[in-house]
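Re: folding output
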Amino acid sequence: MAAMRKIFLVLLLLGSSPVIAAGNPATTAEDAAHYQTCLSRSQNDPQSALEDAMHWRANGGGIPAAHCEALSLVSLGRFTEAARKLSDLAENPRAESMRPQLLDQAGNAWLLAQQPGFALPLFSAAIAAEPRNVDYYADRARARAMHSDWSGADADLTQALGLDRQRADLFVLRASARHAMGRRAEARADLERALAIVPAYPEALVERGQLKQEAGDAAGARADWQTVVQHAPQSDAGVAARARLETLDSMPKAPAKKR
């Protein structure tokens, strides 16, 4: 179960991006340009962006400056500070138009800080504000998975897939949750749906290989993982597949049957 929890979180947490701009709250063209530049730097040169944002905020930069400051903190790995700043921003009346996105970003920052308990109510509030946003359900599923609440994660992902049946990533994530609950046939069906949408989807092949290995199909597992290593060697899925191949290779071989 611990291994499955790790698989789910790797697929979902590392595959997400909590630093997505939530609209443009700037009120002038000059501020809008400054804001976009700062957001870009928050990912490419976060320390410089943080210093710029703090100076800008101190000189009347308002919501755009504070938002860039928070996202720079995320990129710097200062997740708790970022989560608190984003939560405060979400409650600022001047940021009302950005509130759902800010709640979601604050929740993501809490997840990165390994604090899913703080994230859950933020995701729920974002969903209440925008109940047809697929990503908010996926994010809440992550928080639930970190509590090993697999049935809750399954429910959120099912809701998300009811809104968008073409999201291969969500089928993979639901398969991981169902696998963790021992619902292997349903998990396998979800993986086949994902692969029908995106053939050779690396994350789906990693998970399908795991199911095959558990079913005693070592050759099938090896084939799936080798495909991932061949086509996506530097991805998170490629790293996971390589590790599983190494584990498979280290397992003792069954003795050959005497004729």
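--- second protein (sequence, then structure) ---
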Amino acid sequence: MQVKAKKFLGQHFLKDLSIAQKIADTLQGEDFQLVLEIGPGMGVLTQFLLKKEYPVEVVEIDRESVAYLNENFPVLNGKIHGTDFLKMDLRQFFNGKTMAIIGNFPYNISSQILFKALEYKELVPLFSGMFQKEVAQRITAKPGNKTYGILSVLTQAFYDTEYLFTVSPHVFNPPPKVDSGVIRLIRKNEFTLKVNEKLFFEVVKTAFNQRRKTLRNSLKSYNLPENITKMSIFALRPEQLSYSEFEDLTLLIEGHLQGGI
């Protein structure tokens, strides 16, 4: 039995076993209770995860893939979840267990998968896997880089990010039209912000929505007084700020909104 790749699910099945092994080897540390693979398909990566010392569970929305996994990986009996990862309540579903999230992520929802992991960051000390190369570079980009943006800041506020290696299209079936990139995110020891997290996300997104403008112009909607906007940070563009500087910026805005400045 072989599973046919479905375009609407963004499926590109990895066929290079050495790369699957390298992705499995991105797992490190013992700060999690299980490994959760997203979108295992026919289990090319799964087989190497099962050789590790961690309990493995998988989430797969494709019914044909679920049937394949049940037939070929009986060791995963009861640990193959045929559901949509993006709709799962990870706290409830896994009884509050901590997890490493890993996978060859479907390109069409890879950013949403990352945002989902950020939402449950207290449960996810490690996140690694394969993205479209451009997205992988965006996540790991540093301030001043042209690819640095919303994904970069929101991820790096909570995780140390590392771009590991590039994967060419020919190792997939069917081959995608772009290169892929494998990254690893390791949660920071201190991963709580000193500001309201919702406001932090909002400020970052508002700033990058007009990324060519200075913060003085892109953040006009907050109606900040001149004694704040004349500060040197407001003469910068969003791609020049690190996540910690965005945190300082949010602190200023938060103080203003609360009537303290």
